[in-house]
Each structure stands twice: as structure tokens, then as C-alpha cells.
Amino acid sequence: MIGPMKQDNPPNSAKQQTPQGNTALKVDNLSVVFDVKGKPVTILSDITFSVERGETLGIIGESGCGKSMTALALMRMIPSPPGRIAGGEVNLNSENLLEVTKKRMSAVRGKEISMIFQEPMTSLNPVYTVGNQLVETIRRHKTVSATEAQEEAVELLRIVQIPAPEKRIKEYPHQLSGGMRQRIMIAMALVCNPKVLIADEPTTALDVTVQAQIFDLLKDIQQKNGTSIILITHDFGAVSEMADRVLVMYAGFKIEEGTLDEIRNHAAHPYTQGLLRSMPELSTDHDAFRTPLPEIPGSVPDLINRQPGCPFGPRCPSATAKCHEMPPMVDLGANRSVMCWLAVEEGAA
Fold it and tell me: 297-321 burial, b for 16+ CB within 10 Å, e for fewer?
């Protein structure tokens, strides 16, 4: 956890100056199905969103809600079998990545759209030096000599602020700290200066100080290159630190979307409200630290045996008989929507 949420943004903060009308990535009705014991199970259901150039979109939700699966689907890295992308479009530079050949996708992956994976120790090869792995990535996408690739690898380590890069490039992953390994992963993702960078829980298991350094590094890279970032996390504190807009997921559905301020100050879905209530806040009242944080009762539903109606219905404190039917996605404005019968009723009223 990055820490308590910030309550206010300055009126002219960078978060409110994101360039609009310049879409870097557009996702429409993305669906993913896995075959489990011969039965098709829907893991993602009609996920739709877009990311502007230079914008950070935070995707948040509990473990198992489909955040990382969304990232893998965007990269066309769903394990098949048993999984498959069942429908939708992922448009990058007016090209639907779900329709291109495997050879074309291999060229796009890492060059146009790249990903920082959640756990560096499972993504970095322990038997090769970080230099070997960086050089391999560089030469895969660029026509350069081994010497030129080595020089570029050193420069990448310098860009991600790793001290003594000439020395570190000769070391193995286990010789580096967790923060350094995460920076190596960022360096590998930046080899070709991608237009879209997916950061899947980029600060997992890092201490608060290193988390802040990683976020500062990502924001610096974004400012210099105009990179669009999709930040995947379960931590509203991280979203508050990084995101311009927020997409909330639950049980494979997008249930709410809006700007950071709209979600933080005017959450419309009961699940989002529950997430916000469970976040600690800074307080000078010592008794506040002794009061347990409210939690959302129950657990994420079993996707294999889905119940009819709203996926959050069995845990929702505001559920009614109407919630036994699947709610529609209600449009509340530009890039602002919520999937809840309460919003339908309020609109009718």
C-alpha cells in the first residue's frame, strides 16, 4: 500500500491538464473465455475503455476481478488453451490488435505497447545477467550490433536511475534489490519507447519509499515521452498518486469509470464506495488508529457458477429485488459511467 489517499488536488494540477482528443488505445467489448472442465467460463465481459496520449488510466479492484487478465488480453498473451479472446476490439494506431497475425503482434508487442509485469523475479531469467536480457530485448526490435545494444542497455539503466549502470549490467537478478529489479523491468519495457505502457502492480512487495521512487520515475518518463500508462492495482492510494481516470472492475465486469476526482469524491457504485471506505486516512486522532477499517463482507463470486443478476448483488448493502437482473451500463457523462440499478432509478427520478 502506498499510503493514505490524498483528499484534494490543486486546481491546476497536472491531472487536470491531460491532452484530450488524441486517443492512444481504444478497447471495445473485450471478452475472454476459459474452458474449465469442458465448460466455457467468461472471465472478462465486454470491457470497454480508451486511453488518451499522455494519460494514466488506473484499473482497480480486488484480486480475481480481471485486472491482470485485461492486461494480458491487450497484449494477446492469454494462455491458449485453455483461454481465448472471445470478442471485441483493441485498437492501437487504428489497427485492431486482435486481428493482426502473430508475426505482426510480435513486432507490436514491446515496440508499440509494452508491459511491466507484477513480479520481476518470475519475469527475469535467473541464469542470465540483466545486461544479457536487455541486449536480447534491444536486438529483437532494433537492427543494431551487440556493442551498440550493450551501450544502449547501459543508457537505459541510467534513465531508470540505477547507480553504477556499467557494473549492474553484469550482475544477475538475485544480486539486485527488489527496487532495482523493478527498474530493470521498466527499462526492458522502455526499449522501444512504446506509446502505451501497462504497469501491472509495479510496486508489489516494495517498501513505501521505493514505491514512491517508482511512481516518480513512471511520471517522469510519461512527461518526457508522452507515454500513455495503464496502471493496474488493488490500491486506491497508488491510483490517487498516479491516475487521471479510474476504471473499477468486479468479477470480470467494468462497473464504474470516471476521473480520479469523480471516483474519489462522488463514487456511484456501492462496491467503489466500499473500496474507498476501506482506505486508511491521515489523522491526528490516536483513537482512529484503534478503530477497525470497514470491510466489504463476503468474497468475489465464483465465476464458474455465476448467479444471475448484478455480480455484486450478494455483497451489496443497497441490493433490492431488481438486482436479480443484470443492470445496464448507465452513461453519466463523458467517460463517466456506472453499472448499477441505483443509477437507473436516480436517472428516472
Answer: eeebbebeeeeebbbbbebbeebee
For 225, the grid coordinates are 515521452
CA distances 338 to 69, 122, 316, 332, Å, are 21, 36, 15, 7
Distance CA 189, CA 179 (A): 15
Query: In the numeric block, which cell numbers belong to residue 20?
Result: 484530450
Contact present, 320 and 234 (Cβ < 8 Å): no
Residue 171 is given by DSSP the state S
CA 284 to chain CA centroid, Å, is 33
In contact, 121 and 176? CB cutoff 8 Å: no
* HEC string for 40-68: EEEEEEEEEEEEECCCEEEEECCCCCCHH
> How large is the greatest C-alpha to C-alpha distance in the chain, in angstroms?
68
| pLDDT tens track for 37-84 | 889 999 999 999 999 999 999 999 988 899 999 999 999 999 988 999
DSSP single-letter state for residue 307: P
Q: How far is residue 42's CA from residue 35's CA, in Å, rounded to a whole number?
A: 9
Q: Which neighbouring-strand residues pair with 160?
A: none
Three-class secondary structure of residue 324 per DSSP? helix
Read off the C-alpha cell for 349. Answer: 427520478
Question: Does an H or E element contain 24, and which?
Answer: strand 23-36
Taking the CA atoms of 92, 115, 78 and 301 in sequence, report the sign of the dihedral they define: negative
Task: Enter the pTM of the model.
Answer: 0.86
pLDDT tens track for 10-49: 433 444 444 445 899 999 999 999 999 889 999 999 999 9
Coil, strand, or helix at residue 266?
coil
